[in-house]
Design goal:
The protein is built from two helices and three strands, in the order βαββα. It is an alpha+beta fold. Helix 1 crosses helix 2.
Length: 69
């Protein structure tokens, strides 16, 4: 199990958090998603043998939430 935190500058509200949580949770291998508008970060716990951090970042970008780090 791998946990990573990705900085995302455009998390403005609870709706943004829900959008991120739903989309990332649908990826195979993702176990938990914790987006935070307060910190503008997304913490994800996932199985690195199934999905990679690049996949998480791509999904965020496709949603319009560009990773900032």
């Amino acid at each position: 199990m791998t946990t990573t935190t990705i900085a995302v500058g455009q998390i403005h509200c609870g709706g943004c958090e829900n959008t991120i949580r739903t989309a990332l949770s649908r990826l195979d291998g993702v176990h938990t998603v914790q987006p935070s508008q307060r910190t503008n970060q997304v913490r994800v716990c996932y199985d690195g043998a199934v999905v990679g951090e690049a996949d998480l970042r791509t999904t965020l970008s496709e949603l319009g939430f560009e990773p900032t780090d």
